# Entry
Amino acid sequence: MNRIALQLIFLALIGLVLYYGYLVLSGIPISTMDHGNVKEFTIRAFQYGFDPPNITVNHGDTVIINEIDVDVPHGIGITEFGVIARSPEIGKPVTVRFVADKAGTFLFYCTVFCGEGHEGMVTGSGAGKLIVLPA
# Structure
């Protein structure tokens, strides 16, 4: 190999080390980068539940959720994955994206007060379930 090619390889390696070092020092977990398959879902929020009520993905999948309000303003939250969003208006989706880097069953819930049954969409039977299967 000639000297220029070796220098380019060396610079590329230095660039990778600096990039991953930046991620670690910034507190950005490397696991937030895309892994596995991409799973996309459309979830409709209504008084007082979600359709579909459960979604299942595999550990490491990149999850994309398009949440659409069908009656009054809602939103979607999944605490364990740092998801909290609100639809811009009824009928227009809000899109959230994250990597399912924890296995287990997690609630997805309404983030906007939507009426007297709202509490059920947060902690009760109206909340949805995200099921992340182990690798």
Remarks:
- The chain has two domains: 1-32, 34-133.
- The mean pLDDT is 87.
